[in-house]
Design goal:
four-stranded mixed β-sheet; elongated; 12 strands; five-stranded parallel β-sheet; Rossmann fold; 15 helices; CBS-domain; 2 domains; 315 residues; alpha/beta
Amino acid sequence: MSAVEVGRRVLLAEAEGLRRAADELGDSFARAVEVCAAGRGRIVCTGVGKSGHVGRKIAATLASTGQPAIFVHATEASHGDLGMIGPGDVVLALSRSGETRELADVVAYAKRFSIPLLAVTAAAGSALGRAADVLLLLPDVPEATDAVNAPTTSTTLQIALGDALAVALMDRRGFGAEAFRAFHPGGSLGAALRTVNDLMHTGEELPLVEADAPMRSTLLVMTEKRFGVVGVVGAEGRLEGVVTDGDLRRHMDGLLEHTAGEIMTPAPRAAGPDLLAAQALKLMNDARITVLFVVEDARPVGILHIHDLLRAGVL
């Protein structure tokens, strides 16, 4: 069997496991979400080996989506780290077999201090499964290996179940893009989650003229402000149109005999200051424009150039 055939077989096996897990997800998952949501402290993920690595990932995902969470290695817990688990916390223990001996002290501690225990295991009758307050049972599917029983499908299912828990908790709390942004200030993700208000130019930088402004003065404003566009406002300060380089080319004959209102493109694309930077970039791309006026109550309060987005790392 070729390497590609082996890889395809593994992916299909794991995909089948995920399908089974989705089909079998039920009331116990809903109870797990409620227990986590009711906790006043953190979700403490724990495990050893590959399940431990998965536990770290789940804790990181939960924390990044607004749910306080930490990872405590089950072995280290027996040597002092049990003190990291306190009242109000919820323990999420991962073990495919449910018989991982290193988890015994964590389980006993949770029971002793009435800390809710969620178990992710493939064995309902295991020590962990029997001790759990809520059992999240992995489907009975084989690992994606032939010769050895290496954790493959089971760890994929654990990760996916952790993702499902994190997203369900996000949905329950109404955790949206603005909240998500607070946990991801760096990198391209953080840049994309910034708002137009964070990046726009304001005040004296705005290239604005009134509709009856002669084109001579309109061209001076366009040249001075260096955005390649001028916003045209009406008597009440509302944005009525824009004059772009394209408008100038279309009215070359007798250009200086006109006013800005006669040359402008009416009803231009605009954005609110709370629009995400990534959404503003999509709007520009879709409309094939490079400059976007920012308005509140139809009045211009800022201007955003596509270069502002690129400099900020919005991709």
